[in-house]
Design brief:
The chain is built from four helices and five strands, in the order ααβααββββ. By secondary structure, it is of the alpha+beta class. The chain has one domain. The protein binds zinc ion.
Length: 120
């Protein structure tokens, strides 16, 4: 009996990579909240603890910030600081949570990552 072409294709491709269930990212966010309720952590510490990409953590922090508003809590962001000249990254630069690449004032690249905590 002839196989359907798609069965043949599937057989050649071998087993599919496991799909990451949607719950995975949600529980990641819950872990993120749990960590920040314990103590303040900076971007790089969080990334290491949760094994997330820069972009993934950036998005997760955005979600957490929004969802906390419904609970009366608040995501507190201590902005990134340039280690060379002390420039503080407040304002627009802060809308992204990840550390900026370089300082607009001295062009230095030694930037202390922003720190996060949860208040409330
Ligand atoms: Zn600087």
């Amino acid at each position: 009996m002839a196989r359907h072409w798609y069965e043949e294709q599937a057989r050649r491709r071998g087993p599919r990579p496991p799909r990451v269930p949607a719950e995975a990212s949600i529980s990641r966010r819950q872990q993120l909240v749990a960590l920040l309720e314990l103590r303040a952590m900076d971007f790089d510490e969080l990334r290491e603890a949760l094994r997330m990409s820069v972009r993934g953590l950036d998005e997760a922090l955005g979600h957490v910030e929004k969802s906390l508003k419904h609970t009366g809590q608040e995501l507190v962001v201590d902005p990134a600081v340039c280690s060379t000249c002390g420039f503080v990254f407040t304002g627009r630069e802060q809308r992204h949570f990840h550390p900026p690449g370089r300082c607009p004032r001295c062009r230095g690249e030694r930037i202390e990552a922003p720190r996060f905590s949860i208040r409330g």
